Amino acid sequence: MSKAFIAAVIQDSINCTGVAANKAAADLMDAIVKELKRDGGFTLPSFGTFTVKKTKARKALNPRTGEPVKVKAGKTVRFKASPNLKKAV
């Protein structure tokens, strides 16, 4: 799924211009990112939950050379599908 796909769905749903639909799709994505940054999670009822998880620093192997490299600690976004979504798919 892409932002263009979301914009097309919005445009078809509310019969607006493509520019307005693109703006709405961009605003929706920005709102989700802000919510993840602020609260560390975001839930769409009947769809699923996005959560921010911290990852620890670790050692990994460079697949090309096989030599060990250090990977810094960071954050990643996880998704857990709701039971309704699991049934639908």
TrEMBL record:
<dbReference type="Pfam" id="PF00216">
    <property type="entry name" value="Bac_DNA_binding"/>
</dbReference>
<protein>
    <submittedName>
        <fullName>Integration host factor</fullName>
    </submittedName>
</protein>
<dbReference type="GO" id="GO:0030261">
    <property type="term" value="P:chromosome condensation"/>
</dbReference>
<dbReference type="GO" id="GO:0003677">
    <property type="term" value="F:DNA binding"/>
</dbReference>
<dbReference type="GO" id="GO:0030527">
    <property type="term" value="F:structural constituent of chromatin"/>
</dbReference>
<keyword id="KW-0238">DNA-binding</keyword>
<dbReference type="GO" id="GO:0005829">
    <property type="term" value="C:cytosol"/>
</dbReference>
<dbReference type="InterPro" id="IPR010992">
    <property type="entry name" value="IHF-like_DNA-bd_dom_sf"/>
</dbReference>
<keyword id="KW-0226">DNA condensation</keyword>
<dbReference type="InterPro" id="IPR000119">
    <property type="entry name" value="Hist_DNA-bd"/>
</dbReference>
<comment type="similarity">
    <text>Belongs to the bacterial histone-like protein family.</text>
</comment>
